[in-house]
Amino acid sequence: MDNRKVRVGILFGGRSAEHEVSLQSAKNVADAIDKDKYDVALIGIDKTGRWLLPNQSQYLLNVSDPELIKLNKQNEESVALVPQSGGQLIDLSAGGAHSSIDVVFPILHGPFGEDGTVQGLLKLAGVPFVGAGVLGSAVGMDKDVMKRLLRDAGIPIGAFQVFRLGDVLDFEAIAAGLGLPFFVKPANLGSSVGVHKVADSKTFNEAVADAFKYDTKILIEEFIDGRELECSVLGNQKPIASVVGEIVSSHDFYSYEAKYIDEHGAALEIPADVSDSVSEKVRELSIRTFQTLECEGLGRVDCFLKKDGSVVVNEINTIPGFTKISMYPRLWDASGISYPDLINRLIELAVERFDREAKLKTSF
Fold first, then answer.
1. Reading across the β-sheet that carries 77-81, which strands appear in turn?
2. Does the global pTM surpass 0.90?
3. pLDDT at 207
4. What pLDDT, in 10s, does the model give residues 141-162?
5. In this structure, how many other beta carbons lie within 10 angstroms of the beta carbon of residue 252?
6. What confidence score (pLDDT) does residue 52 get?
7. How far apart are CA 360 and CA 358, in angstroms?
8. Residue 340 burial (10 A CB sphere; 0-12, 13-18, 19+)
9. What is the residue extent of each domain of the chain?
10. Domain 140-155+225-354, CATH number (from 3.40.50.300, 3.40.50.2300, 2.40.440.10, 3.30.470.20)
11. How far apart are CA 184 and CA 37, in angstroms?
């Protein structure tokens, strides 16, 4: 590229129950990105799926309240990304084109953002983007497919059962197979939205009904009595792992409220107070998980350390939170990579992958 600044489109919001989390994450990235190197274009997606160019100086309302934060849609422009345009945004409100985006940084959590849908659009548009591609994003989002791939690769996971909308669920049979308590959760969502810890039949039906509000497929997982450890992964073909951190939740489990609403909902111990052998095991499993699921760019792998010393992988997050209390950037900060440098590295990884894929033959 020439000497002009690289134009980064920060894509945030989205049609997901994790919309508000995305707004918080996007603000943190926009505040921390190197303004001397990058020209930032904030692209908000509202809850109906419309792409908007909001007021760049006041793109969020109620910023200080994570429960009331929302996209400022006053004086916004409705835009679209055109396939094979090299990142060209078209103004749908008045016609005409905006300056092209050189690279997109998706800060979208959950369906319609983290599941491969947006990633496919960005590939069709011919623009580099941060994070996993279509396949890695899709399998990283679907906890059922994710766990089956990990199991096939010999990576230790907890026991789980899968049910689809319309299935008849037998509480006694599930409890006999998984033990009590167990967790009920949507298959394709994150941030602990729709997740319930079930200890008896009284709360079972309510938990199942709530999980099915967010997805047509749900998981019921065994409760693992262990410490919650997390590890950040960074890279494309040769990923590296951060130091290991621990989540110590003051809530019954690491819920949505504990993650994003209650500042005292959880303590993040960085680095985790574990032995070197446990730390290396978590880091090794995190990289294996990242590669098994065909991820690139970034990912946060969540594990459990059981009382017998064994480590079980719970899941990967291909677009982990970037809020001020999020684990992913804090783990890298503790590993020697600052927040602004982390953002820069992720953008460089996006361009590196794009350039590598551009050299592939498309005909013979």
1. 89-91, 77-81, 51-53, 38-45, 6-13, 103-107
2. yes
3. 96
4. 999 999 999 999 999 999 999 9
5. 10
6. 93
7. 6
8. middle
9. 6-129, 140-155+225-354, 160-222
10. 3.30.470.20
11. 45
- pLDDT at position 1 is 46
Residue 202 identity (one-letter amino acid): K
Rounded alpha-carbon distances, angstroms, from residue 175 to 170, 184, 196, 199: 9, 12, 15, 9
Buried b / exposed e across 161-172, counting CB within 10 Å, b at 16+? Answer: bbbeeeeeeebe
Q: Give the pLDDT of residue 139.
A: 96
Amino acid at 316: I
Query: Rounded CA gap, 178 and 58, in Å?
Result: 49
The fold of 160-222 is Dna Ligase; domain 1 (3.30.1490)
CATH level 3 topology of 6-129 = Rossmann fold (3.40.50)
Q: Which two tokens stand for residue 155?
A: 């990576």
Residues of the chain with pLDDT under 70: 1-2, 190-191, 250-265
Strands 266-269 and 240-249: antiparallel
114-139 per-position pLDDT tens digit: 999 999 999 999 999 999 999 999 99
pLDDT score of 263: 59
Are 311 and 281 contacting, i.e. CB atoms less than 8 angstroms apart? yes
Residue 345 is inside which H or E element, if any?
helix 339-358
Select from 125, 109, 136, 116 the least CA-distant residue to 11. 109
